């Protein structure tokens, strides 16, 4: 359910939107389902919304996220629109925004629009933009609908408190994890490799309620890091993340069993739930 995916990260979007910018959600109910990876859909929504907010800058303006259903050429489609009242683009810029490595002052953050397009196309969708210099832009993402409607009901993001260390070598994943967890009430410290992780943890071992440790982070030997952290603080709660199965993750953790495991790519709800479970 595309509307449910927007709602799930609405708090994160509001947290990351500058105060002068107003975020409006116009979400249709009972949308047809789309067949797509929820975590990647959330990345697309987040990045389009952040780009829209950056196009406005530190002046008053609005970012409007709309979901709807339509029929085109006899095919039912589900539509996501992200519109802003920002600076807009001239034709030369508009023609290049989906090129790899191209950036402007408002497309330099997060995935980049080339990567956003790659995700959308991988989910059998399309993305277009309408823009006017000085009058804002509207990005439209269209996905083919599947026959069934999503099941009703959705678990709310689980709130918590405490200081967390998030260790991940992927900048986008670190940022998404930080936004997710801060939106749930935690404070977050980031580390991009094994050395930074150990330095951060050793600097204040008692201050961390838990550690989220990605097993693919550079300089990380999972069993060794778990051992060293527990030598410093025996009761530290470490939640592992990775693209392998939980059984494979446990095998790599040695005899120092983690407090939990979350498989990547994860959604905001899945991550928040695992951290909450680990903290009891």
Question: Explain this structure to me?
Answer:
36% of the residues lie in helices and 24% in strands. The chain has helices spanning 2-8, 10-16, 38-56, 91-94, 113-122, 171-183, 194-203, 222-232, 246-252, 268-279; strands at residues 21-26, 61-72, 75-84, 126-132, 136-144, 163-167, 187-191, 210-214, 238-242, 260-263. The strands form two sheets. A five-stranded mixed β-sheet has the order 1-2-3-5-4. Strand 9 (238-242), helix 9 (246-252) and strand 10 form a beta-alpha-beta unit. Helix 3 (38-56) packs antiparallel against helix 5 (113-122). The radius of gyration is 20 Å and the shape is elongated. The relative contact order is 0.13.
User: What spatial order of strands do you see in the largest sheet?
Assistant: 1-2-3-5-4
Number of helices: 10
Can you tell me the overall shape? elongated
How helical, in percent, are the residues? 25-40%
Short description:
The protein has 280 residues and is an alpha/beta fold. It has 10 helices and 10 strands. It has helices at 2-8, 10-16, 38-56, 91-94, 113-122, 171-183, 194-203, 222-232, 246-252, 268-279, and strands spanning 21-26, 61-72, 75-84, 126-132, 136-144, 163-167, 187-191, 210-214, 238-242, 260-263.
Write the layout of secondary structure elements.
Elements: H1 2-8, H2 10-16, E1 21-26, H3 38-56, E2 61-72, E3 75-84, H4 91-94, H5 113-122, E4 126-132, E5 136-144, E6 163-167, H6 171-183, E7 187-191, H7 194-203, E8 210-214, H8 222-232, E9 238-242, H9 246-252, E10 260-263, H10 268-279
Parallel strand pairs: 1-2, 6-7, 6-8, 8-9, 9-10
Antiparallel strand pairs: 2-3, 3-5, 4-5
């Amino acid at each position: 359910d595309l509307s449910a995916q927007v709602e799930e990260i609405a708090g994160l979007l509001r947290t990351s939107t500058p105060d002068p910018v107003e975020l409006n959600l116009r979400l249709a109910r009972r949308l047809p389902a789309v067949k797509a990876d929820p975590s990647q859909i959330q990345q697309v929504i987040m990045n389009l919304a952040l780009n829209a907010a950056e196009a406005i800058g530190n002046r008053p303006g609005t970012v409007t996220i709309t979901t709807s259903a339509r029929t085109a050429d006899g095919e039912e489609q589900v539509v996501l629109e992200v519109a802003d009242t920002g600076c807009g683009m001239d034709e030369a810029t508009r023609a290049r925004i989906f090129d790899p490595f191209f950036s402007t002052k408002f497309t330099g953050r997060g995935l980049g629009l080339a990567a956003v397009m790659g995700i959308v196309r991988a989910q059998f969708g399309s993305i277009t933009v309408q823009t006017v210099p000085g009058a804002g832009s509207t990005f439209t993402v269209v996905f083919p609908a599947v026959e069934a409607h999503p099941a009703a009901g959705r678990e709310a993001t689980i709130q918590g408190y405490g200081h967390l260390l998030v260790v991940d070598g992927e900048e986008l994943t670190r940022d998404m994890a930080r936004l997710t967890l801060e939106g749930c009430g935690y404070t977050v410290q980031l580390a991009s490799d094994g050395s930074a992780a150990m330095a951060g943890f050793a600097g204040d071992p008692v201050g961390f309620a838990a550690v989220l440790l990605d097993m693919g982070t550079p300089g990380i030997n999972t069993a060794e890091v778990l051992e060293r952290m527990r030598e410093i603080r025996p009761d530290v709660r470490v939640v592992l993340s990775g693209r392998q199965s939980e059984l494979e993750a446990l095998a790599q953790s040695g005899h120092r069993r983690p407090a939990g495991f979350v498989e990547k790519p994860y959604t905001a709800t899945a991550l928040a739930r695992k951290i909450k479970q680990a903290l009891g």
